[in-house]
Amino acid sequence: MPDALTTPSRTLVPTKLTIGVLALQGDFDAHRKRLEELGAKVVLVKKPEDLDEIDGLVIPGGESGTFLKLLGKEGFEKLRQFVCLKPTFGTCAGAILLAKEVENPQQAGLGAIDIVIRRNAYGRQIDSSIREGKFLQMNGSNRLDSPIEMVFIRAPKIERVGPGVQVLATEGDDPVAVRQGNAMAATFHPELSEDKRVHQAFLKLVVSSLVEDAGL
Q1: Which site in 37, 147, 174, 181 is 20 to 30 Å from 213, CA atoms measured?
Q2: Which pLDDT score, from 0 to 100, does residue 26 have?
Q3: CB 44 within 8 A of CB 67
Q4: What is the pTM of this model?
Q5: Buried (b) or exposed (e) across 53-77, using 16+ Cβ within 10 A?
Q6: Whole-angstrom distance, CA of residue 110 vs CA of residue 81
Q7: What's the average model confidence in pLDDT over 5-25?
Q8: In the chain, what percentage of residues exceed pLDDT 70?
Q9: pLDDT (average), residues 54-65
């Protein structure tokens, strides 16, 4: 595929995207490496003001309740404002934070994606697994379903998908990656496999958002 960061020459959108990775816990460095492989400049986001310097944000896996504690009231509010304005991609715990409704137990979320998500639905750490799912892509008017490796670690499960939510990937009958507006979420860990397509899809989303903001 073309470089995920390239844009039409007539636009004023920068070709070097600055992507933040929330670096409070979890394997944020794996996301950093993947994004840099794809040509993005990466900022490790540790303070609320770091959000002001980036074009898009990745929220990695970890423990969603711990994320909330570490963010604090100010950090959570700043993050909530960010996801309303700019592209954000959450994996595993990040997907939980982006959901409209969280179960097992109920928990506050950012409400960026109209899904109900259930924490730890795939079991404990020892129940972690590598599975093959389908990644759904559009080629013009044609939909392509291609296999993709998925790493599940204490993964949540998407129990309900709202009418405005696009399913990007499935595992069996379950949606495991979704998008609504500028927000993307995956219940698995694409940063832990060699396949780059999920992160490429996010970078394309960031580019599209910049083009739209520029009115081009």
Answers
A1: 37
A2: 85
A3: no
A4: 0.89
A5: ebbbbbbbbbbbeebbeebeeebbe
A6: 9
A7: 68
A8: 87
A9: 94
Q: What share of the chain is helix, strand, coil (3-state, %, to 5)?
A: 30, 35, 35
SS3 129: strand
The tokens describing 48, both together, are 């609320």
Which residues does the annotation mark as catalytic? Answer: 92, 189, 191
- Quote the CA–CA distance of 145 and 85 in Å, as a whole number: 30
φ and ψ at residue 104, rounded to 5 degrees: 65, 60
38 class by beta-carbon count within 10 Å (0-12 exposed, 13-18 middle, 19+ buried): middle
Residue 113 neighbours by CB distance under 10 Å: 27
Q: What angle do CA 17, 23, 24 make, to 5 degrees?
A: 155
CA distance 165 to 185: 11
Nearest partner of 56 among 90, 25, 30, 27, judged by Cα: 90
Q: Quick one: which H or E segment has residue 134?
A: strand 129-139
> In the chain, what are the domains?
18-119+157-163+179-213 (3.40.50.880)
